[in-house]
UniProtKB/TrEMBL annotation:
UniProt protein name: Stress-activated protein kinase JNK
Alphabetized Pfam families for the sequence: Pkinase
GO CC term (a single one): cytoplasm
InterPro entries: Kinase-like_dom_sf, MAP_kinase_CS, MAPK, MAPK_JNK, Prot_kinase_dom, Ser/Thr_kinase_AS
Domain called Protein kinase: residue spans: 25-295
Length: 295
């Protein structure tokens, strides 16, 4: 962590938030906001490169936020992969531990989040390349023992040359989610049943999310757009059919009672959901080299 020295920082208003950053970071412009904080693009005048500066929003407001911020920072520092966002710098403008309040992460700057790209008519090569890169990033996280559990388009960023990076490391183990809990505004459409229903999970929960993202790229519609966890579970079983008894037996009792009391659904066949015509056609190979997609 860079130590604060008076005169090294300046403050600038970004929307409702004040960014107090090292003077080397100039021309701050808001580019996004997430559950954790606000993100600006900026020019790093020392390295001469554009960067993304993320101010973590009150990281010490409670234990969950603090643990999440700590986890994020530790993982960002040790993960090194071309499909995971790279941390360039991290600093606080406060001068002592007693005053320590704000945390700023400086990362490489990308052009757009996958939310802005997912509805575009991507050709076969670009769609495959984007999905391939998500899988490479996820495989790397899995090999490091990290299960993301909350992979979604807003946590994935792309550049106009079609390169892609995963922005975060998902749900911290402490952020336990309860099926019956009142939902607050976060996107949960891409979360696997194990996560929705609070079950034991393994690496394949992330492949569920990749599948949901791929489905949305193809159909331009969210696959399981639940208003809350219960509504989302209904959407899942309407499409995939009532789960097996083996699955039911792995549920907590209260959840099992709820899930087993739902009507029986046969599910929809894959061919019906994703007919061949819905997939982008193969494009000539050399197009990839000559044309960038616009974000
Ligand atoms: P986060 O708080 O990490 O969820 O980020 C919120 C939003 O800010 C993302 O959905 C992106 O649109 C944008 N963003 C975050 N980091 C970057 C980055 N390194 N490059 C470009 N955009 C970013």
């Amino acid at each position: 962590l860079s130590k604060a020295v008076t005169g090294q920082f300046y403050s600038v208003q970004v929307g409702d938030s004040t960014f107090t950053v090292l003077k080397r970071y100039q021309q701050l412009r808001a580019i996004g906001s997430g559950a954790q904080g606000i993100v600006c693009s900026a020019m790093d005048t020392v390295l001469g490169i554009p960067v993304a500066v993320k101010k973590l929003c009150r990281p010490f407001q409670n234990q969950t936020h603090a643990k999440r911020a700590y986890r994020e920072l530790v993982l960002l520092k040790c993960v090194n992969h071309k499909n995971i966002i790279r941390l360039i710098n991290v600093f606080t403008p406060q001068k002592s531990l007693e005053e320590f309040q704000d945390l700023y992460l400086v990362m490489e700057l990308m052009d757009a989040s996958l939310c802005q790209v997912i509805h575009m008519d991507l050709d076969h090569e670009r769609m495959s390349y984007l999905l391939y890169q998500i899988l490479c990033g996820i495989r790397h996280l899995h090999s490091a023992g990290i299960i993301h559990r909350d992979l979604k388009p807003s946590n994935i960023v792309v550049k106009s040359d079609c390169t892609l990076k995963i922005l975060d490391f998902g749900l911290a183990r402490t952020a336990c989610t309860n099926f019956m809990m009142t939902p607050y505004v976060v996107t949960r459409y891409y979360r696997a049943p194990e996560v929705i229903l609070g079950m034991k999970y393994k690496e394949n929960v992330d492949l569920w999310s990749v599948g949901c993202i791929m489905a949305e790229m193809i159909s331009h519609k969210i696959l399981f757009p639940g208003k809350d966890y219960i509504d989302q579970w209904n959407k899942v079983i309407e499409v995939l059919g009532t789960p097996s008894l083996e699955f039911m037996n792995r549920l907590m009792e209260t959840v099992r009672n709820y899930v087993m009391n739902k009507p029986q659904y046969p599910g929809v066949s894959f061919a019906e959901l994703f007919p061949d015509w819905a997939f982008p056609s193969d494009s000539e190979h050399d197009k990839l080299k000559s044309k960038n997609f616009e974000c």
